[in-house]
Design goal:
CATH architecture: 2-Layer Sandwich
GO molecular function: glucose-6-phosphate dehydrogenase activity; NADP binding
Number of domains: 1
GO biological process, one term: glucose metabolic process
Distance between the termini: 30 Å
Helix content: 25-40%
Number of helices: 6
Keywords: Carbohydrate metabolism, NADP
Order of helices and strands: EHHEEEEEEEHHHEH
Pfam families: G6PD_C (PF02781)
InterPro entries: G6P_DH, G6P_DH_C
CATH class: Alpha Beta
Length: about 280
């Protein structure tokens, strides 16, 4: 808890990346694409669970109450904090959007206006037709002040001063800590290393997938992972300016090649907040 706030965390990155695309026009005729499929539910639920205050108990309603508080604290998204893209499907793929080029990529910076997260950007990258399958959260801590190794490395320590906690779901469930480690030997050379807890190596059990877990929760009567009506309303409220622009055809979708890392302009959005996506 002492570290879980704006004083120690520089930014949080949430990635939902899929190699394959999917046909979305039949499911989302208004043209919201990945926003309606993934962002307002999966992505915002992830952010809410990560950023919420500790609930009074682990009962589902207490957890949902704290999630709603976080979602209501997130500013509405403005055009300067959003990148929408569409994949140029290659000839060998089945990835097609037949209705007015629906968004298949969503990049955004969320701002949570509360005492814990004020000033900490939550960077979202959700896309289909990208170069790898990856679902993870990266918590990047602030750079070390007064870096005593900076001089010895000739000033080239920018890539070694950020510690990270990584919560990964895909491709393999894991909890990782990225730290700076001295390379064995007589010299004073450092490199970024990962301490990893891979579930498949640690536990000799079959890890249930997300839908199995949800079905189990339905049978068990546990609602904490399901969106309550006020959660749904709060999530759509965050996206309302973007949806309005889409409805009025005021949004230009940035095209990106199928199998790439996404629109090139997304890099400008991350750079505004001093962030480089390490999974790129």
């Amino acid at each position: 808890m002492p570290l879980w706030n704006r004083s120690y965390i520089h930014n949080i990155q949430v990635t939902f990346s899929e190699e394959l695309g999917m046909q979305t026009s039949a499911r989302y005729p208004k043209g919201y694409g990945i926003l309606g499929d993934v962002v307002h539910s999966h992505i915002f639920q992830t952010v809410a669970l990560l950023a919420m205050e500790p609930p009074v108990t682990l009962d589902d309603e207490d957890i949902r109450y704290e999630k709603v508080k976080v979602l209501k604290s997130i500013r509405k998204l403005g055009s300067s904090d959003v990148i929408l893209g569409h994949s140029k499907a290659d000839s060998g793929s089945n990835f097609k959007d037949v209705e007015n080029l629906m968004p298949t990529y969503f990049g955004a910076v969320l701002h949570i206006d509360n005492a814990r997260w004020d000033g900490v950007p939550f960077l979202i990258k959700a896309g289909r037709g990208l170069k790898k399958n990856r679902v993870e959260i990266r918590i990047q801590f602030r750079r070390v002040p007064g870096n005593i190794y900076h001089k010895d490395r000739g000033g080239n320590m920018q890539d070694l001063v950020t510690n990270e906690l990584i919560l990964r779901d895909v491709p393999d469930e894991a909890i990782l800590i990225r730290i700076n480690n001295k390379i064995p030997g007589l010299g004073m050379n450092l490199e970024a290393s990962e301490l990893n807890l891979l579930y498949k190596d640690k536990y000799n059990v079959d890890v249930t997938d997300s839908y199995e877990q949800l079905l189990h929760d339905v049978i068990d009567g546990d609602n904490h992972l399901f969106m309550r009506s006020d959660e749904v309303e709060a999530a759509w409220n965050i996206l309302s300016p973007v949806l309005s622009e889409l409805d009025n055809n005021n949004v230009t979708l940035e095209h990106y090649e199928f199998g790439s890392k996404g629109p090139d302009k997304a890099g400008n959005l991350w750079a505004k907040h001093g962030v480089q996506w390490l999974d790129d």
